[in-house]
Write a structure and sequence with these properties.
The protein has 10 helices and 11 strands. The protein is of the alpha/beta class and about 300 residues long. It has a 6-stranded parallel sheet. The structure holds NADP nicotinamide-adenine-dinucleotide phosphate.
């Protein structure tokens, strides 16, 4: 029986370190047997502070596990054509295993056009139609979007049973909510759940969340899910990361999740914090995909 107030923190930072050590060991073995280490390239356009931070964190993680990590930083004024040329150049470069383009891009660049120009074999963010299509069919030979992949790694690590559970995913974006709903409903180790996918037009959201054994919140609205909405003992995964003003912080802001942690911690059995929950697992998912790409070339 579940006892209120006993939530276990799903420590994404610690689990991410665990998986990063495993990846680092594989890289060492790869290099020792004469192969080069995996190489991830990140394209950054413009000077958005959030994007710079995310790309910087990905580069740091590459260094930690022994990958080569390159950031290609372009001015905001780069044309769509020039950016496409860069993508094509990297597609042809056999010394690069993975390419990610940090979103959002400036308004004059069609994000979908850029995302679809990346070779599916190097699309370690899993945004290409081929990778999304494979995921939809339960074919895991492609790349799964890094955030949902990271969440499944976290669920596996803590031996959280998803089979037969009712999972409510809030948010239907192509990079988080939709792929997460597909993974949870698939007949796989972290699947076999009955999934309800909610969005801004869902009318009885509170009613649905109250029935959920697993709640995944990926909305971008700080504190949207509160403890009173949650079924006692539910597993709560908070994907949200919104920067909100906080004068007590050196940066003047802090990250806020979509879940009100204080009230939800008292009702749930497992819960992810923000920061330190899904964020580090997303980076681990990306590293995992890049290693997978490199291993494919060697095989
Ligand atoms: P997004 O593309 O803006 O999608 C948000 C989704 O939330 C949409 O499907 C939207 O519904 C839904 N939504 C908005 N208001 C709602 C409401 N009142 N009730 C129900 N659904 C509502 O966002 P995203 O890219 O998925 O990101 C979501 C959050 O996760 C953001 O805070 C983002 O920063 C964060 N994130 C974190 C990580 C990480 O590594 N931790 C990675 C990716 C994203 P409609 O489709 O109807 O508009």
């Amino acid at each position: 029986m579940y006892l209120c107030g006993m939530a276990q923190i799903l420590d994404g930072k610690a689990v991410s370190s665990f998986f990063k050590q495993q990846i680092a060991t594989e890289v060492k073995e790869m290099v020792a047997s004469g192969h080069r280490a995996p190489h991830l390239v990140a394209i950054l356009v413009g000077s958005d502070g959030g994007s710079k931070t995310y790309v910087g964190a990905k580069e740091k993680a590459c260094v930690e596990v022994g990958f080569a990590g390159t950031i290609l930083h372009f001015d905001e004024s780069i044309s769509e054509e020039e950016l496409l040329k860069e993508v094509h150049r990297i597609n042809l470069d056999s010394s690069i295993d993975g390419l990610i383009v940090q979103l959002p891009l400036p308004k004059h660049i069609n994000e979908n056009k850029i995302t679809q120009a990346i070779l599916p074999e190097k699309d370690v963010d899993g945004f290409h139609d081929i990778n999304m299509g494979k995921l939809t069919k339960g074919d895991y030979s492609g790349y799964i979007s890094a955030t949902p992949l990271g969440i499944t790694m976290l669920l596996k690590y803590y031996h959280i049973e998803t089979s037969g559970k009712h999972a409510v995913v809030i948010g239907r974006s192509n990079i988080v909510g939709r792929p997460m709903s597909i993974l949870l409903s698939d007949s796989s180790e972290t699947g076999n759940a009955t999934v309800t996918l909610c969005h801004s037009r869902t009318q009885n959201l509170k009613e649905l969340v109250a029935q959920a054994d697993i709640v995944i919140a990926a909305i971008g609205k700080p504190g949207f899910v509160t403890g009173d909405m949650i079924k006692p003992g539910a597993i709560v995964i908070d994907v949200g990361t919104t920067r909100i003003d906080d004068s007590s912080k050196k940066a003047g802001w802090r990250l806020a999740g979509d879940v009100d942690f204080t009230s939800s911690e008292l009702k749930s059995s497992f819960i992810t914090p923000v920061p330190g929950g899904v964020g580090p697992m997303t980076i681990t998912g990306l590293l995992f995909n890049t290693l997978k790409s490199r291993k494919r070339q060697i095989a």
